[in-house]
Write a structure and sequence with these properties.
241 residues, Spore Coat Polysaccharide Biosynthesis Protein SpsA, Chain A, seven-stranded mixed beta sheet
Amino acid sequence: MTAHLETAMLMAAGLGKRMRPLTATRPKPLVRVAGQALLDHALNRIEEAGIRRTIVNVHYLPDAIEAHLQARARRTGADYPVSDERSKLLETGGGLVKALPLIGDKPFLCANSDNLWINGPVDSIEALAARWDDAAMDALLLLIPQARATGHKGLGDFHMDANGRLSRRKSGRVAPFVFTGVQILSPRLIVDPPSDVFSTNIFWDRAIAAGRAYGLSHAGLWFDVGTPQAIPLVEAGISGG
C-alpha cells in the first residue's frame, strides 16, 4: 500500500554544538550551505514531493526559525506548524511525542534538518511513499550505502536483508548502510515513551524487534553537514567541483 503523505516533521530543535562558532548567533537549521539555509534545502525536497504541511520543532533561538518559516510561508503558501520545545529540549523521540497531536494518525515523513540530500533518478520521498506497506511496516528509513555517505565518519548504522528488513550494526563492527535522516513513521509506533527526553532509537529498536523496520537505499547524493569544515566540501560536492 502506497502511503499518501500529507504531513512531514522537520527536526530543528538541536543546539548545533558541533557547528560552532556558526551557531553562536543562529540556529543550525539556518546555517547557509550553497546559498540556502539547511532548513530550506530540506523543505524544498519535502515540498517537491508534494507535501504542503511540515511541522517544525524549535528550542534553540526559536524566534529566528519562526520568523524564517513565516517568511517562507508567504512565498510558498505551505503550512509550517511549530512544535514548541522552548522550555525543554526533548531529543528526537521526545520531540515526536510532543508533536503527535499535530501529526495526527496517518503515516508521516520525518526528516532531520542537518543532512542535505539531492534526488537521484527518482524523488526519494516519493520512492519511500511508494515502498510503504502499512500492514508490514512501522518505520521505513532512507539509507545511503556507507561508501557514498559524504562527510560521515561513523561505522554505518544498519544491515538490510533482501526484503529490506533492518537490523542494527553490531558493536565494534561495520554496517553497510547509514541513516540519511529521512524516514516514514507510523504514529502507532510513537507510544509508551520511556521518559520525556529520549532518542528515536527507542522506537526503532521496538520496530526492529517486531520485524517492522525496513529500509530503502537512496540513489542520489547525500551529505552529513555536521561541522563548519564540512560546508565547503558539501558545496563542492553539490556543484560537482
